[in-house]
Amino acid sequence: MAKTLYTIYVIELSKRVFSENIKFRTANPQFNGVLQCLYVGQTSKTPKERFLQHKTGFRNKKGHKLSAQLVEKYGLYLRPSLYTHIDPFLTRAEALQAEQQIALELRREGYAVWFN
């Protein structure tokens, strides 16, 4: 049986998220409006599948919503240039840690970033 791998993905968000969402704006005080607003996540699916889940408000069999509201409302498209160089992870815990590190690194570069 194939081992599940977890990958990091990055979605570009509409810049409206910065003006319309107080939590997003508060999390990104360094943002000067030059670069883009981004969402960083991790998944065991392909980034394209996961993006579609976000945009359609996907719910699992138990009825739990698995899409991020920010991406559902403001998500524009995947940004492969910001994540395809990152190798997959063997555990979800490793992927979650990497998700946070990558998001914080992108913030330091001047992007406005949301991650869970």
Can you offer a commentary on this structure?
The chain is an alpha+beta fold and 116 residues long. Helices cover 38% and strands 18% of the residues. It contains 5 helices and 4 strands. It has a 4-stranded mixed sheet with strand order 3-1-2-4, sandwiched between helices. The model has no long low-confidence stretch (mean pLDDT 95).
Question: Which terms would index this structure?
Answer:
alpha+beta; 4 strands; 116 residues; 5 helices; single chain
Strand arrangement, major sheet: 3-1-2-4
> Mind summarizing the main beta sheet?
4 strands, mixed
The residue ranges in which pLDDT falls below 50 over 5 or more consecutive positions are: none
Number of helices: 5
What would the principal axes of the Cα set say about the shape?
globular
Q: From the helix content, strand content and strand pairing, which structural class follows?
A: alpha+beta
What is the total tally of β strands? Answer: 4
Mean pLDDT: 95
Cα-to-Cα separation, first versus last residue: 29 Å
Helix content, binned percent: 25-40%
| Rounded radius of gyration (Å) | 14 Å
Strand residue content: 15-25%
Order of helices and strands: EHHEHHEHE
